[in-house]
Amino acid sequence: MKILVISDTHGRPEMAEEVITDFENELDGFIHLGDYIDDAVRLHRLFPRLKHWAVKGNCDYCRGAEYIITEIEGHRIYMCHGHRLNVRYDVSRLVYTALENECEIAFYGHTHCPDALDEDGVKIYNPGSITLPRQSRTKTFGILNISADSAEMDIYGIFGDEYRVIL
In angstroms, rounded to a whole number, what is the distance separating the alpha carbons of residues 12 and 143? Predict the structure, then answer.
């Protein structure tokens, strides 16, 4: 399976729509990690064949799950925005929460900065922001390639009309 992972669209899902359109024939689903969960609803309406998962972030004052624990292709995954776990400072609480819930992969957003690391056997991914990046001007997103045998996410930067793996 190939799944788009995005975060922090903040009411501007147009770039996400463009990326989904460009990858649509390859994608099986998308994950939206909050801020704004309504953007995930819009993307699902535009691309109904794609499976989707979405959590709310600190700017979402409405409905929605704070976190999701799911299994995809036999891999247990924890998804959250991250603000409640103080990911702005470090990911130790996220790692602990993933381990506590027997998850081998954890996704978070909130910082608007892409990251990919392995902590205590948990793969931790932040796709950055596809709309409002921090630390650089490069908008980013992730593509999770997941099968029963493996799960790896490449983080792409958007450079004009070109997408390049940056992490």
Answer: 20
Each residue's pLDDT tens digit, 77-111: 999 999 999 999 999 999 999 999 999 999 999 99
Alpha-carbon distance values, 78 to 2, 103, 109, 157, 162 (Å): 17, 6, 12, 24, 30
User: For the whole model, what pTM was predicted?
Assistant: 0.96
What CATH topology corresponds to 2-165? Purple Acid Phosphatase; chain A, domain 2 (3.60.21)
Cα dihedral angle (127, 133, 138, 143), rounded to 10 degrees?
Answer: 20
Helical (H) or strand (E) element with 46: helix 37-46
